[in-house]
Amino acid sequence: MTWLSPSFPVGAFSYSSGIEWAVEAGDVTDARSLRRWLGSMLADGPGVCDGIFLAHAHRAAASGDDARLAEIAELASAFVASRERHLETTAQGRAFIEIARAAWNSPSLDRLVTACGAVIVYPVAVGLVSAAHAVPLVPTVHAFLHAVVSNWISAGARLVPLGQTNSQRVLAELEPAVSAAAKRALGASVDDLGSATFRADIAGMRHETQYTRLFRS
Fold first, then answer.
1. Residues 167-198: pLDDT tens digits?
2. What count of other Cβ atoms lies within 10 Å of the Cβ of residue 157?
3. Residue among 197, 146, 206 at smallest CA distance from 40
């Protein structure tokens, strides 16, 4: 709960995952369109894919399979669709690892981090740290996806803008989708990875050329 709370300093508040461009382009204009956009990102795009990467990283780390963990870390890094999204997930992954080492270190954590190589994306970082501390996989995946969606809603709330009540309504409406994505991620193999959120991917690519920006992605 601490690691995935908004107060944990990984810098998630400064990234919108392309939502800023979606608002400027008119794709997201209110609570309803934000919910539909985020539901697609969760079920058919980076949400469920990140959950799959987390699950496989956790299992590899828990079993001591450093070679498998390295493969998952490399694939997860290569799977990111745009440069800014890559910055987003690697910066958060790096911050998550650094804070975990400083405040919640464990004997196996340094070895697991070394096995992943220089670049560790956010879901892999959460997976290996959770495994190093024997935090069970099922609640970890669910909590991670809930945190990701909450941050997306926070970005949308500032950009649309939405009030606090409408933001909480969007979160409540997406809770079943969070649970469904977590269940899918836990039962998926790497062969099940795939994304069909083309508009969201384009949003992530177009964001860097926006004239004014509040967010880094």
1. 999 999 999 999 999 999 999 999 999 999 99
2. 18
3. 197
